[in-house]
Amino acid sequence: MALIKGLKICAGALVDEHWVLTAAHCDLKGKPQVILGSHSTTHKEKYDQVFSIKKAIPYPCYDPQSFQGDIQLLQLSDKAKLNKAVQVLRLPKTGDDVKPNTKCHVAGWGSTKSKSCKFSNTLREVNLTVTDRRKCNDDQHYNFKPVIDNNMICAGGKNGEDDSCEGDSGSPLICNNIFKGVTSFGECGNLKKPGIYTLLTKRYLSWIKETIAGASSVYIVSQELKTGFHLDVGAPATMRNSCTVSAFFLWAAIFLPLIPEDFCENIIGGHDVEPHSKPYMVLLKTGNILCAGALIRDDWVLTAAHCALKNKSQIILGAHSKNKDEPEKQTMFPKKQIAYPCYDPETKESDLKLVQLNKKATINKNVAILPLPKNGDDVKPETKCQVAGWGTVGNRKSSSDTLKEVNVTIIDRKICNDKSHYNYSPVIGLNMICAGNLKGGMDSCDGDSGSPLICEGKFRGITSFGRSGRCGAPQYPGVYTLLTKKHLNWIKMTMKKAI
Predict the structure, then answer these.
(1) What angle do CA 411, 385, 145 make, to 5 degrees?
(2) Is 312 left (phi over 0), alpha (psi -120 to 50) or beta?
């Protein structure tokens, strides 16, 4: 738990004799202490073990705006002494999801009323039930602000009265006696805003184990990257209608401050473009496998992270025809390829990659740079966009020899996620753009992955995925990686460092 002059508290779980797992948003300013074996926050107890924090390591892909990856490891200043009041909470063996209606419980020392600065003096517990993410995302609940995705668990009590709240952030969520999640955010006791917990997925579990095993080489992330709960989406979790815990939660930690798969991409329903009218387009060839990209500097191409390139893959600039010899063509090879570090192939989040060319391109009327957008603003539904590529022109058809373009319209994420479309498999999140035609027939498809999405003359996204064998189907519009502020910052920083 983290208590800062009565303003903030956090909780955590002892997952190793030297390590506590908590939430990344927990503010650790003021040189907080970690107390193990505690039941009361107000007086020293027989089993208390007090530590300072040697290292604080947030999950490297934690996003304070979307609450993605809201977990953090704290290395204790000394080894914990295990006894009947202090024990390690085992991590789950798998990162399996938790099914709706599963019974869970969470404990903490947080406040017992929403927006209250008064925290519980003793450890309390509340029983919760997991809610379907589709319900949590609907208009009556979070309404995609933020998106409750497959890396999160939504859980609350009956009638909304039982919940975690301010001060319970970082508390472990226990479901069927298995450690499944870490308390992240919510609006205490609000039936429309159940508590949200970071699901301990396979990806997160691997990071936890690797970090603990290689702690000596792990860097400490700046405190500036950490923020507290945003009140517009709910404060950190607190116990409401909870009961006092009579037995110790042996793995609980209190922090007190000393002082204050089947996807595709290609052009469906498009038309040939005027030769060399899109001089920023780049053709990526690895044998018979095609991808596209955009030239964003004379020696850098931006494409999709899932596009696999080899040392001998061809990177062709100035092409109109895929197969013909054209004097305008400049053929390069990859010197270096750098996928966005938080790319997740399972959720398709942040599907972008930078490819450094083995030599600089010659800029002319046939080969030109596509400027990055100045900001990472979202693209509103109904916005008209274009995407080009050399991909297939129909399901199970061969790829196009010449560059084609199709007009697509931005579709609201709520529609893309509903039962008639992607049905949350995967979740189309705020870092993605959904675009196509609700009547079908206009889409990108196999071979267009990495192509730039141009909306109102601006580079706004990167072609990522659609449903395999269903390109142009109205149920499965194309999905594009939105060039957000964090993506743009990474692109600029990566190119700058590589000089």
Answers:
(1) 35
(2) alpha
Q: What is the pLDDT of residues 374-413, one digit of tens each?
A: 999 999 999 999 999 987 655 455 677 899 999 999 999 9
The answer to whether 484 and 460 are in contact (CB under 8 A) is no
Count CB neighbours of 369 within 10 A. Answer: 15
Looking at residue 297, its amino acid is: R
* Residue 417 region by backbone torsions, left for phi larger than 0, else alpha for psi between -120 and 50, else beta: alpha
Calculate the alpha carbon distances from 50 to 33, 170, 322, 414 in Å. Answer: 7, 18, 66, 47
* Pairing between β-strand 281-286 and β-strand 252-257 as defined by DSSP bridges: unpaired
Q: Say how far apart CA 12 and CA 461 lie, in whole Å.
A: 38
Instruction: Identify the DSSP state of 217.
Output: G
Residue count of the chain:
499
Number of helices (H), then strands (E), in the chain: 4, 27
177, 192, 59, 38: which is closest to 120 by C-alpha? 38
Distance CA 71, CA 148 (A): 16
Residue 455 has pLDDT above 50, yes or no: yes
Contact 237, 9 (CB under 8 A): no
226 or 462: which carries more pLDDT confidence? 462
Sheet strand arrangement including 334-339 = 330-332, 314-317, 281-286, 289-297, 300-303, 353-357, 334-339
**Are residues 416 and 391 in contact, defined by beta-carbon separation less than 8 angstroms?**
no
Answer yes or no: are the C-beta atoms of 171 and 70 closer than 8 Å. no
Q: How many Cα neighbours within 13 Å face the side chain of 53?
A: 27
Stretch 138-163: mean pLDDT, rounded?
A: 83
Give the three-class secondary structure for 497: helix
Cα 262-266-271 angle, rounded to 5 deg: 160
Which pLDDT belongs to residue 165?
54
Burial status of residue 189 (CB atoms within 10 A of its CB: 0-12, 13-18, 19 or more) = buried
Q: What is the token pair recorded at 281?
A: 């387009």
Q: Is 424 left (phi over 0), alpha (psi -120 to 50) or beta?
A: left
> Which residues are CB-neighbours of 210 under 8 A, at least 6 positions away?
none
Residues with catalytic annotation? 25, 70, 169
